[in-house]
């Protein structure tokens, strides 16, 4: 993976930059010893590593502003970092960059149940937002699998989704406002406890901008009352096509499940060996969950079972208790862990139109043969967000490159059938060089022009999202000026 | 009227332009400051391009009549989730609303409180910007974080960043039944409390409005639930029990009457044909009663649990001066051209945000060709 050549001028003035940062932050919040900066050398895309020039851990919006003002003045690239759980390399540093970690910005600032929002600092973890309102039976809906660890800042940067977005939407649909610091240190407030924008929807373009437009330090998030209950049904089918048709029929019948998860045979076998959830051995498995009162759940699951029966399932298991529900979810939730047990894997997240499911799964099977690498599929079927896991051996020379080439082919296939490169993980560095498959130069230029407005010096996370050749003419003058 | 029918033609029109354009869809929502410019119609971009009920997806040309889209969705037993308002009654306009107009003005209705605004259902756009560049963003899938989200930026940009040519939506099933719980006689403050209590319940309220006392009778507070008939019965009963402290309530489940009642709220019917200026306020719901008291309006309607307030003031009145600083924004939706020129129609932004907005406009429309001045 190519990264820009570090700016020698910036590297040479490390001592001066560190000294200036220490003027505005407590000593323990400025990390510059090469032994210690290594802790920030990568995120969850561990194949790529590079220690930053320094890392800072501010505790307030004012400190973030002071740090950015210094970096702006000194021409130092800044890479914002939430909890470092990005699978796309969104928080990968360059050797000339300062990592701005928001981990210490973790307070709840306000909870308001009458108006149904919570205001938090952005380093707070996703799950702990729900934790803060659970006692009142409320929750924060977006639930990425990394929710125990991932920060709201990262969720906003990547517009994270989760298993339940068919019903509740993704981060952008649950984000009401932000306090954000621009690269020059200016603090802006966008949105708040009210709905929608009074002018242009700036919040909408900030969410999902991968830390390239500003550093979000506080967020106002919509919270919802928990449903009375939820219960899944598990169904097995003897082909991917039939399972796909069943998903489509459920949706057409007017039921809106809160989640529809899909696993294919390689995935079922691996998770079964690992988690022993008691899954049937079949070609495709669906977990469909609905919410409501016990009677409402019975009624909806009854309807879903009727539809499933028309597709001759090899297994149809409705949860009757909390324990059975847990068991049904156990395998799905351990899928990634199970894969990690048997292999190294690369997890993609292209999204496709649901109707193209059989074609894409068939295409992936062919690519798997061509490259000689196994693939297990687990994904959010209701919204077409796939998660093919390509298995490889990181210790085998050439395997990572082979895996990446195959991943690129799978993502191109997703785009070809009308989908996209990434549904919830973000582009980062991982899919940066595939952007041409989805966008024309003009499509990308329009996006770069947005960054020009928020970050004219091109210092915020500059080497991400867009192919380096596309951003060179903007990044290089900025680097030369430093 | 200029009405290009391909993106290439539209691009050429904008590239070669020597003067500004007023972008026209159905012409039913002339919201914003008056624009004196050559009309440029989107009528050439009409027609549903793709509708896949099993994938909850619809793609249509921006000039497609909204009615055509709603009819196609009804056929598939689905609907646009956000219940777009019809502005014709309020603004005294005629013509056929288009889907592009809905997007350009980010038009939503009562269900916004449950399922989000137009921008939340919008998953893709194609547009031509003021440089004549043909640009796509988003697509036809409902989870997509590839690149920046210009889809949201275009929604509600009132034609000032680009001319929309195609829009794509996530749609939702149309429920079998609806039920409305009604409580009469509540003060504004008590009504907003009742709405908050219902919206904070697990019963999935899809409409939460309060109609103030008027010539039609005493004030009425209304809560809607939708779903299968059994669900509606269950939830309305639970809501009645939950709201017992607010006094006796009744339930309406007649499909025609419930649909008409919510269309009346959606379209701000109490303000149809009245003479004053109409302001639309988005605010923190619990702040609403006190702010409404400050407004001293001639007529008021609360929607979105109190988070949306429609208010009528004497012509030429500056509502923002009466409100002072508040968490939210006020839009002057209906007023004379003179007033809409004198008072900002859209809430003025603080300086750093105004600079960003200005910067974005300069990027997408450097020559000021697209609805110049419409948003201030």
Structural class of chain B: alpha+beta
User: What's the total count of β strands of chain B?
Assistant: 17
CATH-defined fold name of one domain in chain A: Alpha-Beta Plaits
Tally of contiguous helical segments of chain A: 19
Protein structure class of chain A? alpha+beta
Known CATH architecture of one domain in chain A: 2-Layer Sandwich
Give a short synopsis of this structure.
The complex is a heterodimer of chains A (482) and B (376). By secondary structure, chain A is an alpha+beta fold. Helix content of chain A is 39%, strand content 18%.
Description:
The complex is a heterodimer of chains A (482) and B (376). Chain A has 482 residues and is of the alpha+beta class. Among the domains of chain A are: 230-336, Alpha-Beta Plaits (2-Layer Sandwich), CATH 3.30.70.3450; 343-424, Alpha-Beta Plaits (2-Layer Sandwich). Helix content of chain A is 39%, strand content 18%. Chain A contains 19 helices and 18 strands. The longest helix of chain A has 18 residues, at 399-416. The radius of gyration of chain A is 23 Å and the shape is globular. The two termini of chain A are 24 Å apart. The relative contact order of chain A is 0.12. The model of chain A has no long low-confidence stretch (mean pLDDT 95). Chain B has 376 residues and is α+β, with helices and mostly antiparallel strands. Chain B folds into 3 domains: 7-173, Uridine Diphospho-n-acetylenolpyruvylglucosamine Reductase, domain 3 (2-Layer Sandwich), CATH 3.30.465; 177-266, Alpha-Beta Plaits (2-Layer Sandwich); 269-342, Alpha-Beta Plaits. Chain B contains 14 helices and 17 strands. In chain B, strands 13-10-12-11-15-16-14-17 form an 8-stranded antiparallel β-sheet, sandwiched between helices. In chain B, strands 3-4-8-6-7 form a 5-stranded antiparallel β-sheet. In chain B, strands 1-2 form a two-stranded parallel sheet. The longest helix of chain B is centred in the middle third of the chain and has 14 residues, at 229-242. Chain B is globular. Classes of the chains: A alpha+beta (482), B alpha+beta (376). Chains A and B meet through strand 9, helix 9, helix 10, helix 12 and helix 18 of A and strand 7, helix 7, strand 9, helix 8 and helix 9 of B.
């Amino acid at each position: 993976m190519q990264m820009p050549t570090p700016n020698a001028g910036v590297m040479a003035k490390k001592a001066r930059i560190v000294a200036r940062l220490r003027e505005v932050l407590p000593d323990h919040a400025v990390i510059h010893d090469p032994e210690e900066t290594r802790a920030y050398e990568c995120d969850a895309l561990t194949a790529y590593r590079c220690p930053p020039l320094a890392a800072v851990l501010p505790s307030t919006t004012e400190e973030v502003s002071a740090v950015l003002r210094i970096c702006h003045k000194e021409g130092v690239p800044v890479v914002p970092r939430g909890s470092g759980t990005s699978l796309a390399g969104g928080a990968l540093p360059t050797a000339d960059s300062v990592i701005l970690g928001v981990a210490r910005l973790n307070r709840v600032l306000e909870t308001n149940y009458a108006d149904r929002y919570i205001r938090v600092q952005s380093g707070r973890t996703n799950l702990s937002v729900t934790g803060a309102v659970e006692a009142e039976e409320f929750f924060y809906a977006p639930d990425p699998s990394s929710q125990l660890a991932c920060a709201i800042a990262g969720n906003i940067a990547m517009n994270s989704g989760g298993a339940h977005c068919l019903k509740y939407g993704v981060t952008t649909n649950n984000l009401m406002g932000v306090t954000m610091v621009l690269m020059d240190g200016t603090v802006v407030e966008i949105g708040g406890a009210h709905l929608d924008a009074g002018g242009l929807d700036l919040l909408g373009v900030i969410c999902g901008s991968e830390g390239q437009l500003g550093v979000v330090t506080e967020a106002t998030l919509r919270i919802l009352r928990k449903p009375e209950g939820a219960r899944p049904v598990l169904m097995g089918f003897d082909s991917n096509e039939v399972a796909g048709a069943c998903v489509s029929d459920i949706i057409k019948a007017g039921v809106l499940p809160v989640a529809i998860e899909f696993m294919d045979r390689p995935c079922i076998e691996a998770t079964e060996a690992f988690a022993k959830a008691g899954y049937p051995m079949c070609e495709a498995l669906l977990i469909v969950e609905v919410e409501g009162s016990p009677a409402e759940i019975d009624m909806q699951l009854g309807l879903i079972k009727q539809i499933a029966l028309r597709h001759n399932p090899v297994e149809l298991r409705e949860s009757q208790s909390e324990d059975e529900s847990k068991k049904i979810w156990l395998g799905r939730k351990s899928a990634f862990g199970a894969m990690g047990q048997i292999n190294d894997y690369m997890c993609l997240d292209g999204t496709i139109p649901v109707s193209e499911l059989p074609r894409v799964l068939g295409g992936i099977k062919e690519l798997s043969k061509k490259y000689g690498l196994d693939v297990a599929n687990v994904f959010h079927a209701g919204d077409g967000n796939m998660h093919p896991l390509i298995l490889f051996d990181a210790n085998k020379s050439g395997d990572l490159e082979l895996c990446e080439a195959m991943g690129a082919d799978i993502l191109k296939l997703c785009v070809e059938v009308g989908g996209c490169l990434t549904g919830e993980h973000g582009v980062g560095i991982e899919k940066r060089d595939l952007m041409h498959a989805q966008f024309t130069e003009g499509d990308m230029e329009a996006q770069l022009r947005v960054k020009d407005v928020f970050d004219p010096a091109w210092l915020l996370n500059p080497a991400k999202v867009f192919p380096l050749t596309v951003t060179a003419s903007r990044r290089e003058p900025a680097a030369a000026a430093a | 009227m200029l009405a290009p029918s391909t993106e290439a033609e539209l691009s050429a029109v904008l590239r070669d332009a020597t003067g500004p354009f007023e972008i026209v869809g159905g012409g039913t929502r002339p919201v914003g400051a008056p624009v004196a410019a050559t009309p440029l119609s989107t009528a050439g971009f009409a027609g549903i391009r793709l509708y896949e009920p099993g994938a909850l997806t619809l793609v249509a040309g921006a000039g497609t009549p909204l009615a055509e889209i709603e009819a196609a969705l009804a056929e598939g037993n689905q609907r646009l989730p956000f219940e777009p308002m019809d502005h014709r009654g309020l603004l005294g306009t005629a013509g056929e609303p288009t889907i592009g107009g809905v997007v350009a003005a980010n038009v939503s209705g009562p269900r916004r409180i449950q399922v989000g605004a137009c921008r939340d259902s919008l998953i893709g756009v194609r547009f031509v910007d003021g440089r004549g560049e043909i640009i796509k963003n988003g697509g036809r899938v409902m989870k997509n974080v590839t690149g920046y989200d210009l889809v949201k930026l275009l929604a509600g940009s009132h034609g000032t960043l680009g001319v929309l040519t195609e829009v794509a939506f996530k749609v939702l099933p149309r429920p079998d039944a609806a039920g409305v719980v009604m409580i009469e006689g509540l003060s504004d403050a008590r009504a907003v409390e009742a709405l908050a209590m219902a919206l904070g319940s697990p019963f999935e309220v899809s409409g939460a409005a309060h109609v103030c006392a008027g010539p039609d009778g005493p004030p009425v507070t209304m809560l809607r639930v939708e779903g299968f008939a059994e669900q509606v019965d269950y939830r309305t009963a639970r809501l009645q029990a939950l709201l017992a402290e607010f006094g006796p309530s009744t339930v309406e489940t007649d499909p025609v009457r419930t649909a008409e009642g919510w269309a009346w709220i959606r379209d701000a019917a109490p303000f149809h044909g009245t003479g004053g200026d109409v302001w639309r306020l988005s605010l923190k719901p619990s702040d609403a009663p006190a702010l409404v008291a400050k407004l001293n309006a001639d007529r008021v309607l609360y929607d979105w649990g109190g988070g949306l307030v429609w208010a009528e003031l004497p012509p030429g009145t500056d509502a923002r001066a009466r409100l002072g600083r508040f968490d939210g924004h006020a839009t002057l939706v209906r007023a004379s051209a003179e007033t809409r020129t004198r008072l900002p129609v859209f809430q003025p932004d603080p300086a750093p945000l105004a600079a960003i907005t200005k910067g974005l406009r300069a990027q997408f429309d450097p020559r000021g060709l697209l609805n110049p001045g419409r948003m201030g």
